[in-house]
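Annex B. Sample input.
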Amino acid sequence: MDVVRILVRHGADARRRYVSGSGFDWGFPLENAVQHKNPIAVIQFLLDSGADPNEASKGSRFIPLRMAYDNGDMAIVNLLLDRGANGVVILHRAAVNGDNELIKRLINRGVQIRSDEGNSALRGATSAGQFHTVQLLVENGVNINSRNSEGNSALNIAYDRGEMEIYNFLLANGAIEFERREVAVQPSTPAPAQSTTVIVQQPTAPAQPAQPQQPPRNVGREIAEAFRSPLQSGTYALAGTQERIRISAIARSGIITQTWQGQNFQGTYNIDGNRMTVQIRGFTFVFNITSQTSFSGHGENWVRIGL
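Annex B, continued. Sample output.
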């Protein structure tokens, strides 16, 4: 803390984005302080010195408020919100986590639920099975029939994931099925009416030849198929940025490598259904796999660009 005070006292600008002579982007002091989990006194001093809580040089995931929430540091989250941070950047994450108290605070601070971010939060909460969060968002005016880039609404997602409590709640509150879907429970087939026709007993039919045996199951192949990743291996790019990651998606869990600021970082991924959880550089991110070559989440779209 004393070092930070000395630097600012001698001309360091808390509002400036720092780039080295060799071109290395150090970013803004506040985003670095939050990323490296500096004490709250350092965060407050930088804010008092003019740092903008909404500035980030390294992509949307490094916005100070988002990093503070991912770090689980609610004291810094509340400080940043008090100092003007835009709470909408953590709305989707809060919805996925079922963090209803935080969502209520965000609403009270003016975050609009009837917005693209609110719609994304509804689908995220549905995908994560957060029934009470879905209720909260619907009660606060979220567009219940909004659809993502793949054309899926919260209702579609609830059905596909077997979240029937959410599915029934959304239907009861005005959700529309945009395409015909199989009914979850079909009514029982009525018994056929009794026939008055006289049945003539026919002679017993000759025995039928034995049916050929089914080929033996390939258990190994079945197991391999069960563990096969729905996502192709390769290099993926974050739309609109130079960020790149490489995924060795041979199975539903494995290694992920990120090249960032000239350095390589290694982490892990785990896929459950169409949901992928990534752990890298001390952070945890949750994405929805939208195709064999793309995935998205919390405002980011990643697309495969090669091997």
